[in-house]
Amino acid sequence: MARIRKAAAIGGGVIGAGWVARLLLNGIDVSIFDPDPEAERKVSEVMKNARRAYKAMLPDGLPREGKLAFAGSIAEAVAGADFIQESVPERLDLKHKVLAEIDAHAAADAIIGSSTSGILPSEMQTAMNHPERLVVGHPFNPVYLLPLVEIVGGQQTSGEAVERARALYASIGMKPVVIRKEIEAFVGDRLLEALWREALWLIKDDITTVEELDDIMRYSFGIRWAQMGLFQVYRIAGGEAGMRHFMAQFGPCLSWPWTKLMDVPELTDELVDKIASQSDAQAHGLSIRELERIRDDNLVAIMEALSRQNRGKGWGAGALHKDYTRRLSKLAQKPTISKAAEKAKAAKARRKKG
Amino acid sequence: MARIRKAAAIGGGVIGAGWVARLLLNGIDVSIFDPDPEAERKVSEVMKNARRAYKAMLPDGLPREGKLAFAGSIAEAVAGADFIQESVPERLDLKHKVLAEIDAHAAADAIIGSSTSGILPSEMQTAMNHPERLVVGHPFNPVYLLPLVEIVGGQQTSGEAVERARALYASIGMKPVVIRKEIEAFVGDRLLEALWREALWLIKDDITTVEELDDIMRYSFGIRWAQMGLFQVYRIAGGEAGMRHFMAQFGPCLSWPWTKLMDVPELTDELVDKIASQSDAQAHGLSIRELERIRDDNLVAIMEALSRQNRGKGWGAGALHKDYTRRLSKLAQKPTISKAAEKAKAAKARRKKG
């Protein structure tokens, strides 16, 4: 099975630190570069949450954690790494600069994944000497818990790199989905963006508050989508007549004059203020760290609940979770001494006996 | 506490039958009218699933089920009902006809809820003599499990009716959210519609298959939205800097040229065929009934998992689930004999003893 031996993380924000946490908790050493003087503290905060979540997932013990090293440069961070994940801010010029530097110093066969949530890999790989090993590996927050990673190759990406990336992401418990055509924002963020834009209108026009809108989601289709996606859910909603019936019934709505759906709301200061203050009210005094812990507990509980469904085989993210935690448990039980040391020990025992 | 004494259901499709199931399992008698000769069989199929799900929720026993009567007319169905739920197909002319008939025969103070997922209550209540008691009560499938109901009043709806509707829906374990302004498709379906339209483009353009798209949802933001909605999730994603930071970072994407988002895809036969056949493949041989049972098991398991979170107080739909199942358990333990009969029994026992 594919295995990451040593990883590098370039960028340690919410997403970068999430990658670091997933890798370390899989027992993989990580070298990180982030020029932010606060990076070490921020990464350690995310690690604290991640360790807590994995302890809940693995009550019998965690694998030995990988070692984390803070590098002074990109060159230093990528030295010796066979897997490099870039998670710097979403500016093409910055991506070019950072990827060129990674490219110059990384082993020629290292896989380079970019966490970009929207930029085309073809546009990012133009400044690289070995563009064939760059893929987009777009994760979802919190990266240490949510399994999805969208893999997108650019025009110069090799099919082999896509396959290796898929295997490497799967080896750390993720669900890789390869997107077959390169489009801005890929698939997940296209869907999120459509919903987000509509949500902004609903807040702007005072139809709901952010708390009411969130409740509308999490007491209805949110629960559905934790286990089946849009199409499977609608297949069932069609009842005995199935998908065709559903399409016939619901399809015509598409051209109804819900014009707001089609415009882009302007993010005025007024709208940002409204959302920020309604969001403060919705938090009911809980800090971001407290909300994070509640979220993580909930996510683990949902995946565990799904891991016991489908006659014990697990369903969706639950089936993956079952497999992932089983593998991590095995890794945790693995003796830390090497095979050679084990042999020597056995030989010594034989001598004593004899 | 508000209580439905006798309910009527007009329409027994997937949604109507879901209402019937929720009401009966709450111990409420229901009279249903549906001209479909297959209605009785269809409703009993839904009841079978619902009973199964409630048994999983309430291992110590269910409340005594309400009685179901199939009425020969709307007039017969609504006689004596204090709560009437209309779930007929989404055509305004049909809604007018059915609501006029309900209105003519129902008690003047009965609450009338419409399951419409998009038509304005103001447009529906024009043909009624007592329009003040009509509200939209828009549920989500499966109605017997998903708690959300969007309540929307029309121009002629009284504030008192909205409040009574809220209390009655809450009394059968639901999460009522009152939408403060009347707009087509309300809130939930606005959000669903935005995402659905974008999904159709992604399938039409062969970016993904329906199975890949569903996986992208259920291994990422689907799990998140089962417990926190869009805004709370993004508040956390902003990290320590919170909501403002998130808006500043993600906001500009809104005006990027993702033009496809803004057009309506045409539902050609070709697109319908593609989706229907990809959906067949995705079902992996499972029938609609089998998929329904898997879905229901998953939904119950997720709500149960969430009911144990937040230091045992439950979180979101889980907190509601905890309260709902507790109330149903109490109802199940209620002796079915009357207080008078109980007294007489006790007196008899005393006589025997003495």
Automatic annotation (TrEMBL), chains A, B:
Residues 186-252 form the 3-hydroxyacyl-CoA dehydrogenase C-terminal domain. Gene3D superfamilies: N-(1-d-carboxylethyl)-l-norvaline Dehydrogenase, domain 2, NAD(P)-binding Rossmann-like Domain. Pfam families: 3HCDH, 3HCDH_N. It is found in: Cytoplasm. The keyword Transmembrane helix does not apply. NAD(+) binds at G11, G12, G13, V14, I15, G16. Residues 7-182 form the 3-hydroxyacyl-CoA dehydrogenase NAD binding domain. It catalyses: carnitine + NAD(+) = 3-dehydrocarnitine + NADH + H(+). Pathway: Amine and polyamine metabolism; carnitine metabolism. NCBIfam families: PRK07531.1. Catalyzes the NAD(+)-dependent oxidation of L-carnitine to 3-dehydrocarnitine. This is L-carnitine dehydrogenase.
